Amino acid sequence: MAPRPIAYNLLRLILAATHTTPRGVDRIDYGYISYLLDHWPEDVVGVMPTLIGPRYFRREQLMKARERLNDLWHETADPDGDSALARLIQRFDSPGAPEPPPKPRGFLPGAKGIPRIAKLILGGGVTLGKPITALPPNALYLDIGHYGLTFPRAFRWRWKRPDIRTIFMVHDTIPLEYPEFVAEETFRAHQRLVGKTAKYADTLIVPTRSAGKAVQDALAQHRERPIAIHALPLPIDDLFSRKIKPLRELRNRPYFMICGAVEPRKNHLLLIEVWRELIRRHDDGAPKLIVAGSPGYASQDIIRELTAEESLRRHVLLASGLSSPAMARLMAGARAVLMPSFAEGFGLPPGEALSVGTPALVSDIPAHREAVGEAGEFLPPKNPDPWVDAIEKLRDDSYFQARRAAAHRFKPRRWDDYMRDVTNVLINETDDA
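Above: the chain's sequence. Below: its structure in C-alpha cell form.
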C-alpha cells in the first residue's frame, strides 16, 4: 500500500524541552519524529495544542525545531563539557554534603521551562499553523508520547475527519496495575488514556508482549471495536555502543549505577539496604553507587534515606541533569547497571548498559526478560541478599571481565531496524484494520 501523510503529536517533546536532559521515553519520542522527518516519503506535519485550539505545523518548521531541541538537550555535546558530570567526578572521592536535588518534574512547565519552550517553538519565526481539521487527506495521526491522550477535549476534531486513521503507542498500564506507585492524578490520567484509546485508536504499538497483554486487558473494559496491537521492542540509541570509553578520571574506582527517575516503582530502597550491607562488610572499601536520574513521584523519602546517614553519603552519589553522552560514558565504566524495578513497560537502561559492554543486574519481571533476554542477570525485586551477592562477585576483576564478555554478546536493536517494523505497521494501516 502507498504511504499516507503523517500528523505527529508533539506535546511530550514540547514539554520535555523544558528540561535540560531527556528521559528515555523522550528520546524514543524524539527518535520517531526525527526518523520520519528524514525518511518518510509523504508529508509529515506536527500537531500541538495552542490557545486557539489544536494546530498543525509544516515539516520545515519541525526540522528547525529538531535542531533547537538537540541544542537544548546537549544530545550531541562532548561529555567533557557536561557540568553535571564534572560535579559528579569532583564529588566522587570527597562527596561531602549531598548536592541539592532538583525539584520533581511536573507536567506543566515552570518559570525556567517557559523560555526553553519559547526558544523551541519561536526560534524559526512566529506562526499560527493551520487548524487541525485541515490536516492532509487520509493522514495517519501518530501519538507516541501518551500526553496527548489524557485531555478530555483532545480528539473532538476527530469526528469531523473520518478519513484519518489514528495510531497510538501505549507504553504500559503500570498506573492502573500499581496505583500505589503513582500520584492520584496520574492514575486518573491513565484511566482517561485507556478510555480514549478504546474510543479513538485504530492501531496500537506497545514496547513488549507483556505490556501488550496488560493493555489488552485494560481495553477489554471499554472496547467498542477491535484494535490491532503490535509489540515492537524498543531500540537502543547508537550513542550507546562498544566504542564508548570509560571516564579516565574514574578508572580503577569501582562503581555501580541505577538510572531513571527516583521514585518508589524503581525500587531504590532495596539498593539502600544493599549498600548498607556492603558498607557494613567493607567500610570505605565498599563500591560507590551512582543514582543517575531526576526526582519523580514521592521521591522525598528515598532521597531522605540516601542522604540521612553519613556512611551512605560517602558511597551513594545523586546525579541529576546528566546528558545522554555523559550517561553513556558513565555506563561504560560501571561494574554493572542495576535496575531492581517492581514494574516496567520496557526499561531502556539495561539494554543501554549491555550495548556499551557493561553487565546489567535487573529485577526478574516480564518486561526485563523481553528487553535483554539471556544477557541480563535476573534477581528478585523484594530480596536484597541476592543483589548483595551479585555485586560482591562483580567486585572481583576476573569475574567482572567474564560478565563483560557475556555482555558483549548482547545485540542491541537499533533505530533503522526498529523503524522498518514501525513503517510496516504504518503502511499496512487500512480502513478495515
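The chain has two domains: 6-58+129-235+415-427, 238-407.
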